[in-house]
Amino acid sequence: MTAQIYAAGTGRILRQLRSDRRTVAMILFVPSLLMALLYFLYDDVPVRPGALPLFDRIAITMLGILPFVVMFLITSIAMQRERSSGTLERLLTTPMSKLDLLASYATALSVAAVLQALLACAVSFGLLGLTTAGPVAWVLLIAVLNAVLGVALGLLCSAFARTEFQAVQFMPVVVVPQLFLCGLLVPREQMPDWLHAISNVLPLSYAVDALQEISANPAFTGRMGVDIAVVAGFTLVALCAGAATLRRRTP
Question: CB neighbours (10 Å) of residue 200?
Answer without folding.
Answer: 12
